[in-house]
Amino acid sequence: MTDPLALHVPSGVEHVFVYGTLRRGAANDITRLQPPPVFIGMARLRGRMYGFGGYPGVVLDDTADWVEGEVYRFAPDLEPVLDGIEELYPEQRDEYLKRVVDVEVGRQRLRCLVYELNPRYAEGREPLSPGDWLLHAAHCA
After folding, report:
1. Are the C-beta atoms of 112 and 19 separated by less than 8 Å?
2. Do residues 65 and 131 touch, judged by C-beta distance below 8 A?
3. What pLDDT, in 10s, does the model give residues 49-83?
4. pLDDT by residue (tens digit) across 19-43?
5. Which phi and psi (to 5°) does residue 127 adopt?
6. Mean pLDDT, the chain, integer
7. Residue 127 to residues 8, 77, 88, Cα–Cα distance (Å)
8. Strand-pair partners of 18
């Protein structure tokens, strides 16, 4: 039997941009995970956010509006946990794609891990506006 950890592919970065249920106060609040990540700041990137009931997905697009989120510095041991939440490992679903992109954090740009929605899951859906999951979730509650 294959060791599921052997399927995990590290991103090689130490920051993650979270935009949905991993944000502070949301269902999968990243600050509750172990080893605990360190909050760096509020951040944003360009993309289109889509809602799927209890969680969002973002398709990266440099020509789209801003998607709001948070950036955390994380230990390498946390990355397989994040992959598990996004069902990249060990389940190996294709709903999310692991990307490394530049993210605006205040006046600086950081290379961050981002879990991008596979664009085929956005087909036929209207993007959410604004691109802030916490605002959308509060409005729909």
Report:
1. no
2. yes
3. 999 999 999 999 999 999 999 999 999 999 999 99
4. 999 999 999 999 999 999 999 999 9
5. -70, 155
6. 91
7. 30, 33, 23
8. 70
Identify residue 12 by its one-letter amino acid code.
Answer: G
Which tokens belong to 109? 């740009």
Euclidean distance between CA atoms 38 and 32, whole angstroms: 11
Residues across the chain: 141
The count of other CB atoms within 10 Å of the CB of residue 104 is 17
User: 27: which 2 tokens?
Assistant: 């269902």
**Helix/strand/coil (H, E, C) string of the chain?**
CCCHHHHCCCCCCCEEEECCCCCCCCCCCHHHCCCCCEEEEEEEEEEEEEECCCCEEEEECCCCCEEEEEEEECCHHHHHHHHHHCCCCCCCCCCEEEEEEEEEECCEEEEEEEEEECHHHHCCCCCCCCECHHHHHHHHC
Residue found by looking up tokens 């598990």 in the block: 84
How far is residue 75's CA from residue 84's CA, in Å, rounded to a whole number?
Answer: 15
CA distance 72 to 65: 22
